[in-house]
Specification:
12 helices, mainly alpha, globular
């Protein structure tokens, strides 16, 4: 993939992931979290499935099962853990922990899939995570929400590896559609079990759901699956460190939340971490790096 095209798609995708935080926060005034996210993904998955109905559909029970597993981890697992964790910790803390998933991608990829990463890449992930923590204020505590949010990060990492392994067998848009439908249905079931579902219909609430469904789900997931399919999951996932940074800035723009000086310092470390993970370096070569699912 052309490096400029790759960079542009990464920026667009992570920006859409980041802006979903303040837009979702606005939406929580009109619906509880599981219901809001369930509506988002069912609407997005349904629309994308209709758009892709003439494309190659999953073949056999195994491919349908794979799409469902990805949906349970990518949509239901990540968003369910992120929002449920906020009963104990702040949105910023949840964002910090959820975006630690690149570290889990490299750990799980090494242990499970036989991927080999340079020491420099491990160091880059660590620096990126510290940068995210600094950018969001470095306020972490060991509470139930901490472990729930970490479970969301592991879910995100698992979905990343599943997508990389199974996506060659799918039309990527079809896969994105069915995984969102699966995740959305699971979230709606969670809402009916754990919440008192309600949705207040206004122009703003409808606009929020449509933005989350179309831009932050259909566009975001199709781009993300494309990037994971075409590139190394560890390198691609390292850019998830940009998500909370975009979340902070868009929260400032949309919600008027104050942006502190440490956001800039954290952003600098995030950039350094991403550079270390992705820089090919002529002399920093390790013997036969194996890409996941290659």
């Amino acid at each position: 993939m052309h490096k400029l095209k790759y960079a542009c798609l990464i920026i667009v995708t992570t920006f859409l992931m980041g802006i979903a935080f303040p837009v979702g926060k606005i939406g929580l005034s009109y619906a509880p979290p599981f219901l809001l996210m369930g509506m988002r993904f069912v609407l997005a998955g349904g629309l994308l499935a209709l758009f892709c109905y003439k494309r190659k559909q999953p073949l056999g029970k195994m491919q349908w099962l794979q799409a469902a597993i990805i949906g349970l981890f990518q949509s239901a697992g990540v968003m369910g853990c992120a929002f449920f964790s906020m009963r104990w910790i702040s949105a910023s803390e949840s964002a910090i922990l959820t975006t630690s998933s690149p570290l889990f991608v490299i750990i799980m990829g090494t242990l499970i899939a036989g991927a080999v990463y340079r020491v420099r890449q491990w160091f880059g992930v660590a620096i990126g995570f510290v940068g995210v923590a600094i950018a969001l204020g470095f306020h972490l505590g060991m509470q139930p929400g901490t472990f729930i949010s970490l479970a969301g990060a592991v879910s995100f990492a698992s979905a990343t590896l599943f997508i990389k392994r199974w996506s060659p067998n799918f039309d990527l848009n079809v896969l994105a559609a069915y995984q969102m439908l699966t995740g959305g249905i699971a979230l709606l079931l969670m809402s009916f079990v754990t919440e008192h579902p309600f949705f207040t219909v206004t122009v703003k609430s409808v606009a929020v759901v449509l933005w989350l469904a179309v831009m932050c789900s259909i566009v975001q997931f199709t781009l993300w699956f494309y990037l994971l399919h075409r590139g190394d999951p560890g390198k691609t996932s390292s850019f998830l460190f940009l998500v909370p940074l975009f979340g902070v800035f868009t929260s400032w723009l949309l919600l008027g939340e104050r942006v502190e000086w440490y956001v800039g310092a954290g952003g600098l470390l995030i950039g350094i971490g991403i550079f270390l993970v992705n820089w090919e370096g002529n002399r920093l070569v390790v013997a036969s790096t194996k890409k996941i699912a290659s």
